[in-house]
Input
Amino acid sequence: MAQSLYEKEQIAQMVHRAVQHATAGTTDSTDEIYRLPVELYSPRSWDEEMNAIFRRLPLMLGLSTEMRAAGDYKAMKVLDVPVLMVRGEDMRMRAFINACRHRGRAVTQTSEESGQVRSFVCPYHAWRFGTDGALLSVADPRKFGEVDKSQRGLVELPCEERVGFIWVCITPGLRFDLTEYLGGMLDELTCLEADKWFLHGTSRLESANWKITHDGYLESYHIPFLHRDTLSKFWNRESASSVSLYDAFGPLACGPHQRMAGNAWGNDPVLMGRMKDVPESEYTEKHFHAVRTLFPHISISADKNGGMVSQLFPVASDRCITIQNHVNPRDPATYTAEEADAMQKRIVLYAQIVRDEDYSASFSIQEGLNSGANQEMLFGRNEGGAQNFHRSVAHYVQAYRQIQPKRVIAIQGAQA
Ligand code: FES
Output
């Protein structure tokens, strides 16, 4: 597959940094340990984070491959908002609140499903909506009474599809500028060629608080220990001295989006010796492994040959649901029985590892938090990704707080 100039430069830069670190026995480091008060994992903080972040920022709610044809749709709940994404006859992706404009029932059979339609017929009284959200018909209109159909379309949510991903803001009327929000991460995503992926399977997993959950996607410090018998073996990382490269992309100094990369040769001295002899012009994506995170809730452990896209959805201060999406540029219909079996085994394996190792640890951390043993969480100098994540959370919460007093004044003024 042809590489863009951007890809070539990024690959050369990452492998070069990894070789330097591996040779010196170092890794990317921040200036100091970051301390986070445990109060910031409380239900009160969770409420504020949902309002400041999940209800205001664009969320990556779907992959283009999930809805390739006109009429393909996906219904899901994000916090308390029923969301309906659908590709219209004009092939444009749109998102709506999945609530009928008669009395609010979801216009799909259930609030979490996918499928293909020509129009949505509300199961309650059969009002019919187009894939562009327009109210097309009211059942038994002469008996019901006059309805201005132009005023009763589904409530649209800001939605944009770019480079194989679909972003939605779950608050109507809050526009977003994806180019500005993603910054350099847009180039990173473009290189993945996600618009060519196929979805091969999904797993649904439960974990503790969303930030505890997310922390595990943002540092590789834990890999040789928590994943001693699984990922650590696959990646040949047998000590804590493996290399991690942290880069932030987006409008903030700390991102909020990030790329965490590691050397693909682990600590194997033979492979390391060979790497020293590889000229920079021959560095390829095979020499490193990168995980990209899209703030606030996506982890992409994939390259243009596919991999896994994890979507994290907070549901309570101590509970988060993850959807693992396994993607590959090959159409599963072309797989042999052996290849399909191998893919299914991989899907099951990654669900097991994350559930039994990462998310099991998340529940234990939640208990540790609740016990009051610690007043603060520590993120080491080698955990720069997690540091950036928590700085990003703090930034958006602070920005939200700054707009709150104006609202309070306006409400007080109205009451007076
Ligand atoms: S609630 Fe949908 S038609 Fe009545």
